[in-house]
Structure formats: C-alpha cells, structure tokens
Design a protein that fits this description.
The protein is mostly helical. It is built from one helix and no strands. The termini are far apart. The mean pLDDT is 94.
C-alpha cells in the first residue's frame, strides 16, 4: 500500500486500524482454539 500521499493524521489512523485488525485476528484465533479444545475434551 502506498502511504506517500498520506499526512501524519492519516498515517496515525492507518496504524490504529492495523492494530485493531491484528487484535481482531488474535481474538478470533483464540476463540477458535478454545472451541477446538472444548470439542476435543468432549470426545
């Protein structure tokens, strides 16, 4: 992604968005892992 045309505030917003998306991915992975562990212990 080309960020040369973005000003300082736009770059800050982009960084916040990227951090949010990373946290969301980690949260989804944690939920899926928890569900898999729960299913494995039921068998």
């Amino acid at each position: 992604m080309d960020t040369k045309s973005l000003d300082k505030q736009d770059k800050a917003h982009l960084q916040i968005y990227q951090n949010f998306m990373l946290a969301a991915k980690i949260g989804i992975i944690a939920i899926v892992a928890t569900l898999v562990i729960m299913a494995a212990t039921l068998v």
